[in-house]
């Protein structure tokens, strides 16, 4: 298995297992012979974790079997596709749903039907039998429904059998589980039988306004308990993204804040007048499995009354300066104070490094009195000849990507 490089490496290099940023970074994938439980609270779905894990594996040549009792194979595949995870020849489904509904499902090379999903022995023998057919991974969606169908003691003994099969065939298993309020003793037994548990929960305050996952246990990673919880968003299409709800982009007038936001995101909007921002910019960034919402401030002093509000709840900052205008540097620092983001993780962007008279990085550091721990990245316009003095311009992606990597790394 290739090493997971996360923000430092090329996403295509990742030898998949989870295919989910931060999870692969923390757990280095799912090794052979291991069982992972993805345990969700009822208010949040965990099915997208399944889709994404399946997709990462089937696209890298791993044969995957899905035991499916939650929905029909057709709607499962459609839902996967809506997240931009189309099936391929490596995906096989054991259909334990059609038999419940009585709706006839045609068997294909890739879909096998369990005629009587209420028959414990048939379910067991089909699943265990299938595991001998070279699957690198089996996904059970859903394990809690299996517990509802039969009873918890049954599914606990079923886990033992799955474990034996997975170990003897060098496979791995992912169980999708929603805790509908089962007896604690039973759930504890389940947790004790799996190698890793990943919790998926909502942050609830009357309404759910965020979702996070956290590694509750993992027996192949040292200090798994120290792993932090990770805010995420399930995006259609796109799947699970580690999510930063608010990153502030600030700096003096004309430094290139709007240019940065428009270059980093596909969907940026600005409230502008004559090319200058008068209220805010917003754009969402998708980068290496991460999603961040960027909020840009105006630079002109007459909008300073807005700054405090724009800085609220930001968790990190891009501070943008014009490399040719050291006289604005005190203003740059002042904007960190006025947005009340001084002290948050920050990456300084020395923009317009393409212009004559641009200061060198070291000089900018000195003049801004930057601590050596703070990252400074130089950015330039993609095409100097098309820069319009009344419009934000597109910045070269190298600098943008370096800046995103640097801040995201500090935030996780
Ligand atoms: N040559 C060059 N021009 C740039 C670069 N980045 C931005 N510009 C130009 O600089 C001007 C200001 O860019 P903006 O992105 O609007 O700056 P801003 O910080 O959002 O400005 P305010 O919102 O008014 O504070 C525009 O004319 C851009 O085209 C760069 O890297 N190189
Ligand atoms: Mg602007």
From TrEMBL:
Keyword GTP-binding: yes
Keyword match GTP-binding: yes
Protein origin, superkingdom: Archaea
GO molecular function, one term: GTP binding
Keywords carried by this UniProt record: GTP-binding, Nucleotide-binding
SUPFAM superfamilies: P-loop containing nucleoside triphosphate hydrolases
Gene3D superfamilies registered for this protein in UniProt: P-loop containing nucleotide triphosphate hydrolases
Cited Pfam families: Arf
PANTHER family registered for this protein in UniProt: ATP/GTP-BINDING PROTEIN-RELATED, GLIDING MOTILITY PROTEIN MGLA
Record's protein name: Small GTP-binding protein
